[in-house]
Each structure stands twice: as structure tokens, then as C-alpha cells.
Amino acid sequence: MRIPDEKESRRTAGERSQQNWEEAMVRLSVLASLLLSLVIPSSATSAPLAKEVEINGVRLPYVEQGSGEPVVFVHGVPSDLRSWEPVRESIAKKYRFIAYTQRYFGTGPWPDDGKNLSVATLADDLAKFIATLNAGPVHLVGWSYGGQVITTAAVKNPSLVRSLILYEASVASMLPTDSAEGKAAREDRAKMLAPVIAAAKAGDAVQAAKLLQEAVFQLPPGEFDRFPQDRQTRVLDNARTLPLVFAAPPPPVITCDMLKSFARPTLVMRGEKTQAFYTLIAEAIGKCVPGAQLVVLPNVNHDGPVRDPAAFSAAVLDFLSKHPGL
Questions:
Q1: What Pfam families would the database entry show (predicted)?
Q2: If DSSP codes are grouped into helix, strand and coil, which group holds residue 298?
């Protein structure tokens, strides 16, 4: 057995000391990184989570992303939670984004033959959805038919609502009936929807969906077929719901007096180039809700959230920043 001389022993001890020092530095580096991750928040937004919740005897899919004050998005017709994809990321950076698919919409099975579809039913579903998630009070955002649903839910359940954001809500009871403008808008609306309803009643829900999109977005015939594929798919997936919508009972009447007693911050939006039906309703709601803010998005019509999602998101975020939760 060879015994190392003094020089070799010193070299070996030095090498061990160097190795121990390097290992210590690695451990310190890892520890420092861990501590920094705990005290410095990441700017990245967490990935969206697809979930389901059972309320009122039905299972509703929803997507959730971000943290902070909850902002619940309610889609229109014919659509589902996918309609909010263009604005999801921007909202989720600062708030808890929640979008769900309403009963009878989306690709899932219906709980029955559709006989229970009504704005009243969907508004009750929304209230139960918020309560089941234990999320209230929430900021509510609704587009078109979804705006009608959230307005109905809000006036009935104000304690669940932190603020109300409406984009061209189709609250027909708020359309003025004592003016030439209001009467003309109602007639134009009926004329626009006539071929859509006829197609739905004839059993051609796909054609009805295409005609409805082209009508409300003021597009020439055949333009639907030039939509991006994901948008076409979303609309056609929901075409089957249109016959139910047109056969549904009238929605609960919303009056100016009801809105005057709705003491919640409210943002009313419409497109600069939209139809008179939506313009007059937006103006009427804006006048009735105390302190309501009216915003007109430039160069868009009923398609604002998808044609210019950046402008839509900016308006929503600006409003929310002025009305933080207590």
C-alpha cells in the first residue's frame, strides 16, 4: 500500500475544498432562486382551466384564468364561452376571468328537449352559477342576448353583482316606443330577423345561423363562409339552439324604473356603426341607470368584441379599474 506524500495530500485536500465550495455555491444559487420566486410575482398569466359545475339540474362548462376580482362573461346567440377567447388573456392578466356556456348552448347534451329555454331560466342559472362558485359579488359582462340575460339576473339578484358591463344588450323592452326612431328600429329589426326565423322554423338551423350572423354584423350574403374556421365552427355548433330561442317565451320586461333602482356601477357599450335597435337601447339604459357610463367603440358594429377585441378589452379594463371591489 502506497502512502501519499505531503505534497499529494495537500493537493487532494485542496481539490476537496474547491469541490465543497462549488457545491455550496450551487446550493446557495438554488436557494436564492427559490426565495426570489416567492417574493417576486411572475408576470405570466396562469393557463386557463376548463371546468364543469352542476347547477339547477344541468352541467355547465366554464373556463377560468387569472386571479383577483371575478369577472363573469356571458355569451350571446348562437354561441358559447368560446366567443370570449379574443379577450380572455388581456382580462386574465389583471382579474379572475370566468366564461361559461349557458344551458342549451355549446356541444354538450341538452337536459331535455329544450322546452325550458328562456331568458328567465338562463338568468336563474347565472345567479346559481355565481353562488355555486362562491364568487359573488362579481363584475358581469354580457354581449347581445347575453346582455339581456345578465341584466335580468342583475335586477333580480343585485347582491351578486359588483358591476354591470353591457355590449349592445338586446333588452327589447328598453327600446323607445313613443318615437319615430324607436318604431322604425323595431320594424327594421323584425324585417332583418324574418328570413332567419323562417329558416329556423323550416328546420334549416344552419342557414338560420349564417343569416343571423350576416344580418347583425351587417355583412353581404355569403360572407359567413369567409369567416375564420374557428369562428364558423363555434357558430354552427350552436345553430341547433336557434329554433329554441325563437320559440321561447318573451323575456322578463326590464323597465327604466327597475334600472333606476339598480345601484351598481354600469358600463354601456355599443359600436359606432351598429344598427339603430342597439343604439337606442344602449342610450335608454345609459339614461336610466344612475351614473352609467356610455362608451362608443369606433369603426365596429355588433361585432365589437371580435372585430376589435383590443378596444373592447381596454374599455372594460378602464371601467373595472375605476370600480374596484370593496
A1: Abhydrolase_1 (PF00561)
A2: coil
Same domain, 204 and 130: no
pLDDT in tens, 202-220: 999 999 999 999 999 999 9
pLDDT of 259-311, one tens digit each?
999 989 999 999 999 999 999 999 999 999 999 999 999 999 999 999 999 99
* CATH label of the domain that carries residue 98: 3.40.50.1820
Distance CA 175, CA 180 (A): 11
Q: How far apart are CA 213 and CA 279, in angstroms?
A: 18
Concatenate the DSSP letters of all residues of 59-125 into one string: EEEEEEE--SSEEEEE--TT--GGGGHHHHHHHHTTSEEEEEPPTT-SSSPPSSSSTT-SHHHHHHH
Please give the model's pTM, rounded to 2 decimal places. 0.86
Strands (E), the chain: 49-55, 58-65, 70-74, 96-100, 138-143, 161-167, 266-271, 293-297
* Ordered strands of the 266-271 beta sheet: 49-55, 58-65, 96-100, 70-74, 138-143, 161-167, 266-271, 293-297
- Give 326's pLDDT tier (boundaries 50, 70, 90): low
Does 285 lie in the same domain as 138? yes
Question: How would residue 324 be classed by pLDDT, with cut points 50, 70 and 90?
Answer: confident
* Number of domains comprising the chain: 2
Residue from 196, 195, 206 nearest 235 by CA: 206
pLDDT at 47: 79
Best CA proximity match to 138, nearest among 47, 68, 51, 90 = 68
pLDDT for 263 equals: 87
Q: Is the same domain home to 86 and 125? A: yes
